[in-house]
Write a structure and sequence with these properties.
heterodimer, A: 246 residues, alpha+beta, five-stranded mixed beta sheet, four-stranded antiparallel beta sheet, globular, B: 216 residues, mainly beta, Protocatechuate 3,4-Dioxygenase, subunit A
Chain lengths: 246, 216
């Protein structure tokens, strides 16, 4: 397996590139699994204003219960770790809030272990923590989760590969074209420089948009530390087409 | 997003309060994509995710296939989102895909009545997936697909057209060998006239790689 030093060299060669929207290129060789799972043919442009992709799946109050947003109350006891709240606003690129839409998260526990059978990292499972949550954004596009801070964990990309602590996010917009799956990171993580998944976002300004902000005003006294993670969804919607393409 | 599609937005913009709302001048830079990773299995799939069709509906069709990488190996850790117009052409969708039990917090699956337009299926260890749905409406004659996988840093969109769907603007604009990657074919080994096979090839030459879409 390749060394961290070799991966570092590959990361350095690609660093700083500005990409559309700051999104990672689908082929990013330092992340080895991208090599055979990225297209080689150019994508095909769709400009059909009647495309179903300009509408979006809808979710309602029957799909999500209030406690689904609290990952610390799923079991009989309290999970181990630093209790945190993660909250923010989901908007499109015009700043319009994405209302009543589904936000899903999943993460490792405080020791860096996922509740997943493929995960055999020798860190303990926490019987009081599963690590998956759901919420609907409110009328302002705001969401809020209570959870524990996930730990970093090793993975098999190269020798001594470690993922920075992160929470996976899955989001829907006002159009299926605005779908987003991403990862939220924590400020000041020393592993950023070594991680080819984080570094696949090669534009430093875009990297910052993946990192939550510690927000003392959102910390709950005697209870939890507050992080803010605002999310801006890319891609057109039916509204966008109506306003700009007719 | 291709360079072409994103060209009008590529200039640096300051993420301030929106001033260009409705004027076609986006002011906020998007949150970048990251891979779904390998460990979504206890979070994203839900009971009834593959069962878009109302229970026992006589028009139900099965669409199934494999997801393959650039060497033709099945991908066991992909997850597909499906989204389509209702049979009457409605694009508005309906809630009820997930349905949570408010007493236990467990997901119940669909009520078997409402057609929500949304489905989700994770591939199994052999890279296989299967969806049970109603044929899409004639004026939106396809099932939209979002492809997510470990190793895929930014998801991909494609479409599934059943064999008798008319050629729309997208299909008409494609070379024949590319167009064929978007056509499901009848799978009589499952159910003649009721089952279709659609494989997704993440990487390959023009006749192999699935057509993936970019929205301007």
């Amino acid at each position: 397996m390749v060394t961290q030093q070799e991966i570092d060299k590959e990361i350095a060669e690609l660093a700083g590139r500005v990409t559309p929207g700051g999104h990672p290129p689908r082929l990013y060789p330092p992340y080895r699994s991208s090599i055979l799972r990225s297209p080689r043919q150019p994508l095909t442009l769709v400009t059909d204003p009647d495309a179903i992709e300009l509408w979006t799946p809808v979710f309602g109050t029957g799909d999500v219960a209030g406690l689904d947003a609290d990952l610390t109350v799923r079991h009989s006891g309290e999970p181990i770790g630093e209790r945190i709240t993660v909250s923010g606003r989901v908007t499109d690129r015009d700043g319009r809030p994405v209302r009543n839409q589904l936000v899903e998260i999943w993460q490792a526990n405080a020791a860096g272990r996922y509740v997943h059978r493929r995960e055999q990292h020798p860190a303990p499972l926490d019987p009081n923590f599963t690590g998956a949550g759901r919420a609907l954004t409110d009328a302002n596009g705001d969401y809020r989760f209570t959870t524990i801070k996930p730990g970093p964990y090793p993975w098999g990309n190269h020798v001594n590969a470690w993922r920075p602590a992160h929470i996976h996010f899955s989001l829907f917009g006002t159009a299926f074209t605005q779908r987003l799956v991403t990862q939220m990171y924590f400020p000041g993580d020393p592993l950023f420089a070594y991680d080819p998944i984080f570094q696949a976002v090669t534009d430093p300004a875009a990297q910052q948009r993946l990192i939550a902000v510690y927000d003392h005003d959102r910390s709950v006294p005697e209870y939890s530390l507050g992080f803010r993670f605002d999310i801006v969804l890319d891609g057109p919607s039916a509204t966008y087409f109506e306003e700009d393409h007719q | 997003m291709s360079e072409l599609a994103s060209e009008p937005r590529s200039a640096a913009r300051t993420p301030t309060a929106p001033t260009g709302v409705g004027e076609g001048s986006p002011v906020l830079e998007p949150t970048p994509s990251q891979t779904v990773g390998p460990f979504f299995g206890y979070a994203l799939p839900f009971p009834g995710g593959p069962d878009l069709a109302p229970a026992g509906h006589p028009d139900t069709v099965t669409v199934h296939g494999y997801v393959y990488d650039g060497e033709g190996n099945p991908i066991p850790d992909a997850i597909l989102d499906f989204w389509q117009a209702a049979p009457d052409g409605s694009r508005t969708g309906a809630p009820g895909s997930l349905r949570v039990d408010t007493s236990s917090g467990e997901l119940l699956g669909r009520d078997g009545v409402r057609f929500t337009g949304f489905g989700r299926v994770a591939t199994t260890g052999d890279g296989h997936w299967a969806l049970r749905t109603l044929p899409p409406a004639a004026d939106a004659p396809y099932i939209a697909v979002g492809v997510f996988a470990r190793g895929l840093l930014h998801h991909l969109y494609t479409r599934i057209y059943l064999p008798d769907a008319p050629d729309d603007a997208l299909l008409s604009g494609l070379a024949p060998e590319r167009r064929s990657t978007l056509r499901a074919r009848e799978d009589a080994t499952v159910a003649a006239g009721r089952a279709y096979r659609f494989d997704i090839r993440m990487q390959g030459d023009e006749s192999e790689e699935t057509v993936f879409l970019d929205f301007a």
